Amino acid sequence: MKKFTVLMCAILIAFVAFGSQVEIFSWWTGGGEEAGLLALIKLYNQLYPGVQVINATVAGGAGTNAKAVLKTRMLGGNPPDSFQVHAGMELSDTYVIPGKMEPITNYLKEWGMYDKFPEDIMKICSYEGEVYSIPVNVHRGNVVFYNTAIAKEIGMTTAPKTWKEFFGLLEKAQKAGYVAISLGDTGKWTATHLFENVMLSQFGPYKYNMLWTGDQTFNHVALTEAFEIMKKIVPYFNKDHAAGDWQDASRLIFEKKAFCNVMGDWAEGYFKEMGWTPGKEFGWFAVPETDVAFMIVSDTFGLPKGAPNKENALRWLKLVGSVEGQDLFNPLKGSIPARVDADKSKYDVYLQWAMADFSVKALSPSIAHGSAAPESFATMLNDILNRFVSDVNVNQAVKSVLEAAEEEGYLVK
Ligand code: GAL
Questions:
Q1: Are 179 and 238 in contact, with CB atoms under 8 Å apart?
Q2: Which residues, in sequence order, are CB contacts of 390 under 8 Å at separation 6+?
Q3: Model confidence pLDDT, tens digit, residues 316-338
Q4: Which atom of ligand 1 is nearest to the CA of 26?
Q5: 133 and 27 share one domain
Q6: Among 64, 193, 257, 390, which has the minimal tally of Cβ within 10 Å of its Cβ?
Q7: Residue nearest to atom 8 of ligand 1 (CA)
């Protein structure tokens, strides 16, 4: 008995000494996203059995609710040990520049990861020569997902390349009694997500990318044309779009009520989780007239200053940056690995398509998902789009975007 008590005490001490817990903050609560996160947590538990992982999530697509909670915590000096953050402006503008993050460049070097990510991605995880977060994935934002049974019924034989061809299909789907294109914009961002892709199609990736560097004016006919296209899309939405989110919109496709929707490929993870096989029950193509580009959405994790369990947070970062971690997480999440040396054979036919395109297409940063512009601009755009999907007033929307761009310091002359 005495021996047993001593043993139990020793185990207990070892556990406590080990660091006890790590709090990981994200908005991955449903669909394939939760499955990916839970798989990572399980692997962490296997590697570090003495550490309790606190899975701190705040539901809401694109972090609509989570980001506000996180900001309050960070400003209040109560950071989680690590948190999901988009590469690009969301990371640098919100957290790095205000001095809330620790640089992790040396850890990446120590772990042999420094040169294992594409330069373009590393650039948006860095600020003034230091790396501040590790990309766990790359999502593609400019994708249309569709129900293959409906596609067959309406006689779709090839993927539409142009808006004209796309509208032809939407018309047929609507005539056949389906919602032609589904939307769930209760959190507003999904309309912006769609719109940024339409913008990309009209500006082209070269000019679109220069909007963010101040080398291309917003005051361009492409902006008006983008809203004209949006105006044509709006009548094809489900009437109750304001009541749902991206998962509701995806489910309409799954339930064979809607033909298609424009969504990032987390929808792919969601379809798979509901039991669909890519290429069988659902198909995909690049948003019309954006085939030359790949709209990047990259989820990353960093190390906040004052993380209560720094050692355990570093263990988390090392795991999410590892080949093993990435190849476990991404096939479930519906994203491709950020690492260049991941095992491609672990990815399904859709993800292989995205991987092939990622390596050859022009990469463009997403507004709705925090890479291109600061949150303040994305919020203004969300409001503009939210109004636009009900009043479809092109002139007013163009004027509002120009005002927002000017306020943000972008080129509008
Ligand atoms: C994005 C995020 C994705 C996915 C999506 C929907 O912003 O990068 O990982 O979570 O929101 O919630």
A1: yes
A2: none
A3: 999 999 999 999 999 999 999 99
A4: 10
A5: yes
A6: 390
A7: 299
